[in-house]
C-alpha cells in the first residue's frame, strides 16, 4: 500500500473503522454474512457495518488481499 510522504498513524487509526465499514459493505450483503465470514458475533459484525468500531489485526489478516486491494484503491 502506498501512503503519502507524511503518514499520520493516529489519523489512520481514527479513520480505520470507517475504512473497514466501507470494505465490508462493498464485499458482503449484510452483517449476518460478515458474522459468518469472520466468525464473530452478530453484534460485532453490526458494529463494524455501522463503523462503530474496528477489528483487530487477526481479522484484517483474514480479509487478505481483497482488503489490501480495497485500501490501495482508496488512495
From TrEMBL:
Entry superkingdom: Bacteria
Protein name: XRE family transcriptional regulator
Organism, as annotated: Paracoccus methylovorus
